[in-house]
Amino acid sequence: MWKLTKVAAVAAALAAAVAAHAGEVEVLHYWTSGGEAKSAAELKKMMQAKGHTWRDFAVAGGGGDSAMTVLKSRVISGNPPSAAQVKGPAIQEWASEGVLGNMDALAKSEKWDEALPKVVADVMKYKGNYVAAPVNVHRVNWIWASSDALKKAGVAAMPKTWDEFFAAADKLKAAGLIPVAHGGQNWQDFTTFESVVLGVGGPKFYQDALVKLDDKALTSDTMKKSLETFRRIKTYTDPGAPGRDWNLATAMLIQGKAGFQLMGDWAKGEFIAAGKAPGKDFMCAAAPGTANAFTFNVDSFILFKLKDAAAQKAQSDLASAIMSPGFQEVFNLNKGSIPVRAGQSMDKFDDCAKASAKDFADTAKSGGLVPSVAHGMAIAPATEGAIKDAVSQFWNDDKVSVADAMKKIATAAKTK
Ligand code: GAL
């Protein structure tokens, strides 16, 4: 009996210790599709295991445009969440407003500088101080395929070039299938567009045109060819594409109704959540012409300045959980991405993820590693928005000529 009392006393003391530090984390994110929600749930579980309360601030909408609008209004009203899913140059913009906390003490004690590739660590810092924590590396330049659809259409292999892609698309069409599953937001159009630019022009051209926004590159013959290829892809999409969410486009592959989808590897999270296996039910390959390149998209959470001590502790525990090898593994197994920590084991990951990890390392050396513009990794948000609109206008309106689109994109690139 005395033993039980002792155990109970220890448990009570432990609970009190947890309670003394227990706080609430309110986390803004836009992970609401099947695979995304499963991934976000892992973070929630970890925070609850540490005794904290998780307040879910999910704003639906792939790519996060709606989430960013909601976040702005919350911060302007002086009531920021603990953390928000923000990435790339937008991290710097938020930090320059003076609303983010300094996570250096935690980063130092957990050796984040050693754990992260420098290109990633630099993006997480503002004026040398950590203000954000990264969760993963998504690769954007993928093409996904439904094995059933390819089989029905007699397509034997994943297309390596755009010519092979169009030949396969013709076969899918002839078999009565939808060759390309596409959705209806400007970030989906641009996800396809940047893979086309990368495949047609290569990494150096991609950098010049879409990252450096060099006028000469933007109005070059290579850009003309990219736009022509991009427009040709549209002829293989179905009339239901406008307005469709990206995960519903992935569902068309899962159901065997469509052949291909050009999408980042969060699409793999959808296949996995639906119980499908890579290499069997669905296929992954680098987008045509992009085998030696890698468009990276690093999801991360910015951490806001908080006043309450318990909330600060919960926030620090959140950042620590995000960076832990255990979380990086389980989260990314669900999300379709790969861990961002250097030297993390890939044993439990599938072949698509293993290929991604290898290509991430190889392209970092070869110069083929480039930031995704579609996913907010490369240029200032205002410029990105303007270019995306110009590209989507071209995609949506067949009356806009290639020459006009080039002019519009070049003008949009000057938006500050
Ligand atoms: C990306 C984001 C991914 C995924 C996708 C669709 O921008 O980095 O994590 O959620 O949008 O929402």
Automatic annotation (TrEMBL):
Its main location: periplasm. Pfam families: SBP_bac_1. Residues 1-22 form the signal peptide. It comes from the Bacteria. One of its GO terms (cellular component) is periplasmic space. It is found in: Periplasm. Keywords: Signal, Transport. Part of a binding-protein-dependent transport system for a sugar. Belongs to the bacterial solute-binding protein 1 family. This is Probable sugar-binding periplasmic protein. It comes from Acidovorax temperans.
